[in-house]
Structures are given as C-alpha cells and as structure tokens.
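Subject: sequence -> structure tokens, single chain

Hey, anyone have a minute? Need the predicted structure for the following. Not urgent.
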Amino acid sequence: MSRARVARRIAAGAAYGGGSIGLLGVAAVGVLLAEMQIAKRTVGGGAAPLPPGADGLYGRAFGPDEPLRLALLGDSTAAGQGVRRSGQTPGALLASGLAAVAERPVVLRNVALSGARSDDLERQVSLLLAQPLGPPDVCVIMIGANDVTHRLPPTESVRLLASAVRRLRTAGAEVVVGTCPDLGTIEPVYQPLRWLARRASRQLAAAQTIVVIEQGGRTVSLGDLLGPEFAANPREMFGVDNFHPSAEGYATAAMAVLPTLCAVLGVWPETDRLEPARRENMLPVAKAAAEAAKEAGTEVTGARAPWALLKHRRRRRLPVSAEGAAEGSAGGSAGGSADGPAQARGEGAAETSTSTN
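Reply:
Had a minute. Here:
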C-alpha cells in the first residue's frame, strides 16, 4: 500500500473514530522490540542538558512597534533539549529570524515539554490560550517522535494534533507544524530497526500533514531533521546523547522552518506562486503529504480542497548574532532582550543561503 493511502487511512481513522491502524505489521513487532532494547543501551550514552529558557523579547532594536507573538509547542525538539545556551534553541533562533525578516520585535513563549507526546498538546494549548494578551500570532508545533517510540496509536496521535491545531486556528493563531522527524537517522539504531523506524515516522509525518492542512495550518517536513547534513555529519549534527540535535542541528532545522513561519504571516519576500524549476507542484493533499515526508524541508500549504501546494522555499541564513540573545524569564517576560539578533538586519538574515533544498 502506498504511503499516501496509508496516511489517508490514518487521518480518516482519526477523523471518524476508526480503530487503530498500525504503522508496522504484526510480524515486525517482535524484531522491533528486540532491536529497541539494543538501541536503548547505545542511544543516550551522554546526558543531554535540560533545555535553557529562551522566553522573552527579540528584536528590541526595531523600535516600539507592537511585537509579533510567537509560541512553540511540542516535545524536546521544540524545547531545545541538547544545547546549553538559550540562543541555540529553535525558539530563540526562530524568534530572532522572524524579527529580522519582519523588522518588528517578537515576543517568544515556549511551552514545549521534553518527552511530550501528542496527548500533551491539549495542556500546552490551554496554557497559551489562557494568557491575558490572548492567542499568539503564530504557533510552531514540533511533535511525533515520542509518539512513535512510545507506540501511541497513530490514529490517536493525529487526532490529538488535529484538535490542537483546530483550537489554535479557531482562536485566531496561524499554525506551522514541523512533522515527525525521521527516526531512522539516529546513528546508534541498527537494521532492521532503522528501516522500521524510518517507515513508521514517515507514515506518521504524512498523516500529520493531512490533518494539519485540513485544519488550516501549514507543515514543514522535518524528515531527517532537515537536510542531508544530518546523514553526512551525524557527529556534528547530533548532541552528546546521540539523540537530540546539537546546536548546529537546531540551526539547520530552524533555517528550514523560518521561511514557512514568515510566509504564513505574509512577511516572506517569496510568494506562494509555484516554481516548477524547484520541483514545486499542486497535488492532492494525501499525495503532497507523502511526497513531503520523503524530502526534508518541504512545505505543504492548503489550496482549494482537495489540493495542496508542495513548495521548496529558499532558505536564508539565520541572524549571525542569534546566540547573543539574553535569556528571558519562564513566564515570557519582555525583559528577555535580543538586541543582538535585531542588529543582524541586512546581514545574516538577509543573506540567501547556498542551501536551497
């Protein structure tokens, strides 16, 4: 069965309350469990530091304009586990980049939780919507890896994600979802677990894309954590525990999500016009979801139902001084200054990267 058909079945099961649709055949379960025990002895050989707090105001140098409000939700990838400096987290990198592109200050609030599965999204969304200032302007969700490793039924996983996106969109927030990363890229995971993990995570990513598009959000495929760099340089791109990304890995991921984050707010210089030379196309949603799951960094945007736009946006370098962002308070205090990222205007943020997917 094609990945598009499997993804559509999972999404339909989530929407209509069908039974759990397994990502892996019954015959593979015994092998998977045995290999997982071996992988657990290897993965996590080092202790990943807890995610540093990065909430606060970025782009203060752009003046007194009403700041854009950015929120991050999801698991340890969204939280930034594996790095020690707040400026190295994906939240800080995205807030700095958004401020530089939009030329407006950005307030960041990160409610992601290390180890979270999709069943924690309801709590995270409730935290955001309970804020006195109302919902954020845009939310970035990164979720799915723990759903696969903890065997959360895929229909339940995508149902919970769809509910979270629906609540945020109803409240008026734009939503960008970084879909389930390709767990087959984790270096200590051996065959056949590597193949099974890749298959399971890509099928979940495709199903996530379908339900997010149906709820009015956009997706970016995290795939092998956004680019061949991870496969070619795993020692540099993964952190000390061989599981979470390193600072270089998070920067690579953030650089691929940033164009979609800016585009959904209408501040990205590129339009949604398709460029065939860049292998962009309009496809049925399920087909677009399956194609995106195969190539990291691919954006899927809803068009006229049942069609979706498959885009490969040009990446731009993140502000070179993003690591200079001061840490904010856990409550999202505006005291978390990022004057350094703001001053990168016209430098790193405005320079087109040589990596264009």
